[in-house]
Amino acid sequence: MMKIICVCGARPQFVKAAAVSRAIVKYNTENPNCIIDEKIVHTGQHYDENMSKVFFDELKIPRPYVNLEVGSGLHGRQTGLMLEKVEEVLLELKPDIVLVYGDTNSTLAGALAAAKLHIPIAHVEAGLRSFNRKMPEEINRLVADHLSSILFCPTDTAVENLQKEGITDGVHQVGDVMYDSVLFNVNLAEQSSQIMSRLELPSKGYYVATIHRAENTNDTKRMDDILSAFGQIDFPVVLPMHPRTRKILGKKLTNISKNVRVIDPVAYFDMLMLEKNSRLILTDSGGIQKEAYWFSVPCVTLRDETEWVETVEAGCNILAGAERQRIVDAVKQNENKSTAYNSMLYGDGHSAERICRILLESQVNQI
Ligand code: UD1
């Protein structure tokens, strides 16, 4: 038996962890003599029901072994609390491997706690770089990658980024688990999501947007520019609002243009449907840039750089930064463009199975 602890705590990590957990359950059913025992440790970084519980329910993720209930806070404090609590769990459960996802503070804490206890780390979504060290995510990924012994890269670019930093051992290009997730869930979402009728949205008659990155939310000028651009574009903008963004905007929310429809954060199936039926997506999220691509919906990214350079190179994503006129122009430019979407850019939808197999092989090699 192989004992894996998955440390996660933020919304995008639940989507990725769901794909891998599903592959593990499938593997266990087919191989009853060689079981992978996976336990999920939820750091509690995201704690609102619609940022956490709905994802576990909808994606049928195994219930966490423990929720560390760390909650929000300054980066040092939040990460420090996680580190202390994750260490206790690792000492208790003595896993063979710790699995971490993406680039959040939960990723950093999981990786650091494991490294100090000499437990091998596997990092899913390794090798991504924005080359902007002002982003907390960039620091988290750099540290997690340098501490990991198995690095699951979603793209060739990610493999090359690691090579440039001298990391070549244990690197596997497996494709993107988020693509596995979209392929597996899109039909379920079509069947169960009511969001289009609930919001009375005409297919291809609206844009969908998200904003939550610190570089935007913590900068008044960038936020004002983004929101004023949303007020000037040709179609209504549906904006499921992250709690961070809502908190920072506070009273300003009442001044938002009538063209913008602010709603609460939505569950995964609803988000897939909002994206798939939209005319164009505006976002500063990483995952949503790729989901736009998989749904062949043009994307305007509200950042100055992206880790998902393939979508930009393919002409499917425009980096518009956070200047009002640049955003308005990018929307116009994308509206009038027909682009080829080659869905194989991010793998074939079987990344999680590959991850599962490689994890098992790694254990065999250690014996
Ligand atoms: C985190 C990740 C980011 C990821 C994002 C997905 C880090 C450094 N950042 O950012 O990479 O893209 O998750 O959403 O780990 N809040 C709530 N309820 C919640 C969660 C958060 O109200 O359930 C509010 C709190 O005010 C909190 C703020 O949102 O202070 C920020 O939350 P936090 O977990 O620190 O980071 P995110 O912005 O969600």
Protein described:
- Helix 4 (105-116) links the parallel strand 4 (97-101) and strand 5.
- By secondary structure, the chain is of the alpha/beta class.
- Helix content is 47%, strand content 15%.
- It is globular and about 60 Å long.
- It has helices spanning 11-30, 53-58, 75-93, 105-116, 136-147, 156-164, 177-192, 195-198, 214-217, 220-232, 243-249, 268-276, 286-294, 309-313, 324-335, 351-366, and strands at 2-8, 36-42, 66-67, 97-101, 121-124, 150-153, 171-173, 207-210, 237-240, 260-263, 280-283, 299-301, 317-319.
- The strands form two sheets. The protein has a seven-stranded parallel β-sheet, with helices on both faces. The protein has a six-stranded parallel β-sheet with strand order 10-9-8-11-12-13, with helices on both faces.
- Bound molecules: uridine-diphosphate-N-acetylglucosamine.
- The site of uridine-diphosphate-N-acetylglucosamine (UD1) has 19 residues, from helix 1, helix 5 and helix 11.
- Uridine-diphosphate-N-acetylglucosamine binds at residues 10-12, 45-48, 51, 72, 103-105, 136-137, 212, 242-244, 247.
Strand content: 5-15%
* Rg (C-alpha, Å): 20 Å
Bound molecules: uridine-diphosphate-N-acetylglucosamine
Rounded average pLDDT: 96
**Amino- and carboxy-terminal Cα gap:** 13 Å
Strand tally: 13
**Fraction of helical residues:** 40-55%
Order of helix and strand elements from N to C terminus: EHEHEHEHEHEHEHHEHHEHEHEHEHEHH
The global form is globular
What summary fits the major beta sheet? 7 strands, parallel
**Unreliably modeled segments:** none
| Spatial strand order of the main sheet | 3-2-1-4-5-6-7
Note the total helix count: 16
Structural class estimated from helices and strands: alpha/beta
